[in-house]
UniProtKB/TrEMBL annotation:
Protein species of origin: Bordetella flabilis
Subcellular location, record wording: Cytoplasm
Binding site for ATP: D7, S8, G9, N10, T11, R12, L13, K14, T166
Family, per entry: Belongs to the type III pantothenate kinase family.
Superkingdom, taxonomy of origin: Bacteria
Gene: coaX
Annotated protein name in UniProt: Type III pantothenate kinase
Length: 304
């Protein structure tokens, strides 16, 4: 059986297909948890509102998926449109909702269900990799999505997950698997667009960040990169103060390349001032699909 993994975002709809994922029904899988790097998974991306492209992609598959697991932050209407397309193949979608505690991740959010499913799933996936793989669940479950808690693994390191998309999110998880909280700010493209649409004379800028920009395009591009990188440094330093050691840094998202050099430079400067080595930044492809693959490997079958 193949399982379709769905990352329904504001700009892109990303699809992952897990081949030979399990039995004919439900989500029960044999063997270890799967990750996005698995040769049994293929990924595809289309515009988030291009439902016809989704139909075309599904029609081209040799065998349609029999089950789907997804994270949707693009609104109920988008979720319903995806469900309607998959219903023509007899494929039901299970949408993930953030939990207070599941898979070893405990959320400090005041209302845990308010946390974006994409952020929560991504943290679950990174946490599983940091701990060396997702533990299979014990008895009981943690809520309506069928997710089950996993045992804690000692000695895991804290990490900062920075995702640069339509919005930029910076989420910090302790070595004990506690989501301490995170930032949300406009992504690089939204920052540029807001200046172009909200002012009379500023252009929609593209340029290389400079220490001392000498034209408007450079000034805007440098300001955007500095804002994004500065937010990363802020959370990295906050994590170092909270945990007594600097967190690992993971980066993802289509806008990462735009801010990578500035982020690496400012992190190195901050590390030097604080007497630390500059952190190595690990870039993750498709963190939401990666996390969904881990979840799919441990979800219980649907009740008959």
């Amino acid at each position: 059986m193949s399982i379709l993994l769905i990352d329904s975002g504001n700009t892109r709809l990303k699809l992952g297909l897990l081949e030979d994922a399990g039995a004919e029904t439900g989500f029960a899988l044999d063997g270890p948890a799967l990750c996005a790097a698995s040769p049994r998974m293929t990924a595809h991306a289309i515009a988030s509102d291009d439902i016809q492209a989704l139909r075309d992609w599904l029609a081209a598959l040799p065998t349609p998926p029999r089950a789907a697991l997804g994270a949707n932050v693009a609104g109920p209407a988008r979720g319903s449109a995806i469900e309607d397309v998959l219903a023509t193949y007899g494929c039901a979608v299970r949408w993930v909702v953030a939990q207070a505690h599941a898979y070893g991740l405990t959320s400090r959010y005041t209302r845990p269900e308010q946390l974006g499913a994409d952020r929560w799933v991504s943290m679950v996936g990174v946490l599983a990799q940091v701990k060396g793989g997702l533990a299979k669940a014990g008895a009981g479950n943690s809520g309506g999505s069928g997710l089950q808690p996993a045992a804690q693994a000692p000695g895991a390191s804290a990490f900062l997950l920075a995702c640069f998309g339509t919005a930029t999110t910076l989420d910090t998880v302790s070595g004990e698997g506690v989501f301490e909280g995170g930032l949300i700010l406009p992504g690089p493209a939204l920052m540029r667009q807001s200046l172009a649409s909200g002012t009379a004379n500023l252009p929609l800028a593209h340029g290389t960040p400079q220490d001392f920009p000498t034209d408007t395009h450079q000034a805007i591009s440098s300001g955007v990169a500095a804002a994004q990188a500065g937010a990363v440094v802020r959370q990295w330093l906050a994590g170092a103060r909270r945990f007594g050691e600097a967190p690992r840094v993971y980066a993802a998202g289509g806008a990462w390349d735009e801010v990578a050099l500035e982020t690496e430079r400012l992190l190195a400067d901050a590390a030097a001032v604080s007497g630390r080595l500059p952190p190595a930044i690990t870039v993750i492809e498709n963190p939401v699909l990666n996390g969904l693959a881990y979840l799919a490997a441990s979800l219980e079958p649907d009740s008959p």
